[in-house]
């Protein structure tokens, strides 16, 4: 996402981060209203309502028509649809945290479940368990064939239940290691970005 697009998205959320503006949109969704009507419904002063409407007009979420000396406001449903289609997407919202280090949570999981190099327990949460399995998979080298005894020996360095961890590593869901005829090897994919040490 470009910096310009990021600022546009940030501005959108800032404008809508107000209870009264959201209520205004809700009221206008039922039909057009004058400033005086909106002020009465929200129990606000007319200048305050005008200020909120001006902010919503910046996003083109509301339109206005004049009838003599009275201004009537209405919800711009087309802009709302376009906003939903182009701005409020999972991709655009996730882009708000593009600069946040994605490894931070994984590092926290490793720190919580390891005491030094010893795995204190195997997480019951599948998502956390995957973090542990990724780290364990990184203890095996690419291009090396391991026997089951060698796999167990490596896993026992970190936790006594090597059989469970070995099964998890070769499970169809995760498939961090591959097995055939009693031989094991690291699956040929790019190495995980999981931190190299649980204590880091």
Automatic annotation (TrEMBL):
Residues 1-95 form the HTH arsR-type domain. InterPro entries: ArsR-like_HTH, DUF2087, HTH_ArsR_DNA-bd_dom, HTH_MetalResp_TranReg, WH-like_DNA-bd_sf, WH_DNA-bd_sf. Keywords: DNA-binding, Transcription, Transcription regulation. One of its GO terms (molecular function) is DNA-binding transcription factor activity. NCBIfam families: HTH_metalloreg. This is HTH arsR-type domain-containing protein.
């Amino acid at each position: 996402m470009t910096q310009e697009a990021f600022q546009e998205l940030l501005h959108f959320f800032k404008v809508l981060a107000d209870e009264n503006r959201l209520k205004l949109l809700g009221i206008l969704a039922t039909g057009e209203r004058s400033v005086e009507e909106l002020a009465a419904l929200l129990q606000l002063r007319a200048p305050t309502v005008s200020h909120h409407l001006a902010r919503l007009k910046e996003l083109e979420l509301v339109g206005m028509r004049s009838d003599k000396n009275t201004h009537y406001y209405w919800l711009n449903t087309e802009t709302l649809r376009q906003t939903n289609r182009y701005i409020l997407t999972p991709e655009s919202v996730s882009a708000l945290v593009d600069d946040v280090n994605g490894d931070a949570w994984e590092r926290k999981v490793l720190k919580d479940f390891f005491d030094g190099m010893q795995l204190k327990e195997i997480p019951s949460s599948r998502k956390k368990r995957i973090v542990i399995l990724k780290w364990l998979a990184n203890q095996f080298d690419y291009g090396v064939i391991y026997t089951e005894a060698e796999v167990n020996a490596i896993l026992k360095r970190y936790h006594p239940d090597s059989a469970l961890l070995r099964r998890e590593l070769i499970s169809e869901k995760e498939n961090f290691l591959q097995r055939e005829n009693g031989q094991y090897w690291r699956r040929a994919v790019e190495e995980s970005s999981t931190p190299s040490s649980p204590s880091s």
